[in-house]
Amino acid sequence: MSINNVALIGGTGTLGAPVLKALKASEFNIFVVNRQTSRSVYPRTQVITVPDDLNVDGIAQALKEKEIDALVITIAGSHVESQKKLIDAAFKAGVKRIIPAEFGSCDSADEKTNEILPLMKGKKDVRDYLLSLEGMQREDGSKFTWTSLVTGHFFDYGLTCGLLKFDVKDRKAYILDGGKIKFSGSNLDFIGKAVIKILEKPAETANKLLYVHSSYVTQLELLEALENATGDKFKRIDQDSEEELKVARPKMLSGDREAREEVVAVWGVVASDWKEKEGFANTLLGLQEDDLDETVQKVVAELR
Fold first, then answer.
1. Which residues contact 256 (CB under 8 A, 6 or more apart)?
2. What is the DSSP string of 45-103?
3. How far is residue 284's CA from residue 111's CA, in Å, rounded to a whole number?
4. What is the C-alpha separation between 50 and 61, in angstroms, rounded?
5. HSE-up of 141 (CA within 13 Å, CB side)?
6. How far apart are alpha carbons 84 and 279 in whole angstroms?
7. pLDDT of residue 138
8. Model's pTM, two decimal places?
9. What is the mean pLDDT of each run of 10 residues along the chain (304 residues)?
10. Fewest 10 Å CB contacts: which of 6, 113, 168, 221?
11. What is the pLDDT of residues 111-143, one digit of tens each?
């Protein structure tokens, strides 16, 4: 299987923008899928315009006309029905590889995670849908394949917005369960590299759930790096993850978005260790972990 023409949808988002940047720097021929009424602009990029309602036949025709080999989806993972429409269109158009909007902080293949964070069930639903199409024969005899990528917390981005339980601007560290739990996270440009590697290795990555990380640290290691980079002592606030979840989960289940972010933040630290997990793919994809101090220094400089 060879992949040449790659389309991305969601190219202006937190993840979509760096993934698009990586794709444009690659050897692939890149297109962006954009809805008719979208105000997003993509300079010097080929654009495929599709109906606002993601009409399956309309998208399929557009993808087929451009002979798209792979579709990368970086819209919000919670948009399950939209993803299913895109998948149906890709299947109908003869697209060879789908990378769905898995990514993210937590493992949707883990039953405990889906219990704690129902948001993840939508990602599992999409992956199950891909599995249901995996063995189906298409009219042209081509194979339909998928790769889901789990990245852990968006690491550099997470340092700017509290996702990793650090308030860098106010020099506060919210340390969970003693701060010695190893967790996996990935810088945004690293995720872009991982997507490229998947597309460059289509046979090795076909129909797989893969885990990657650019950082594998404890909160205490991260705290030390932050204090070194800023030259300041952070105020340490110790927290118990179970107690934090007891407070935040009921609010999340009643629709509180800030509480949902808190649950994601906590669970993404205490239950996101990919190192020994089946499907850990740094070696398969030829990816190296980033230097923690360099990452932290860059983020601190950007926040000044």
1. none
2. -EEEEE-TT--HHHHHHHHHHTT--EEEE-S-TT-HHHHHHHHHHHHHHT--EEE-S--
3. 26
4. 10
5. 0
6. 24
7. 79
8. 0.96
9. 94 95 96 90 90 93 96 92 96 96 93 92 94 82 92 97 96 98 98 98 97 98 98 98 98 96 97 96 98 98 92
10. 221
11. 999 999 998 999 999 999 999 998 777 777 788
Pairing status of strand 166-167 against strand 172-176: antiparallel
Could you identify the residue written with the tokens 């990657």?
A: 212
Tell me the C-alpha distance between 86 and 132, whole Å.
15
- Give dist(CA 192, CA 189) in Å, integer: 5
Q: Which residues contact 191 (CB under 8 A, 6 or more apart)?
A: 15, 18, 19, 103, 149, 151, 154, 212
Q: Spell out a b/e string for 35-71, using b for 16 or more CB atoms within 10 Å of the CB, else e.
A: eeeeeeebeeeeebebeeebebeebbebbeeeebbbb
Token look-up 């889901």 returns 148
Rounded distance between C-alpha atoms, residue 246 and residue 210, angstroms:
30
Copy the structure tokens of residue 205. Answer: 């990555």
Could you give the maximum distance between any two Cα atoms of the chain, in Å? 63
What is the distance between the alpha carbons of residues 80 and 30, in angstroms, rounded to a whole number?
24
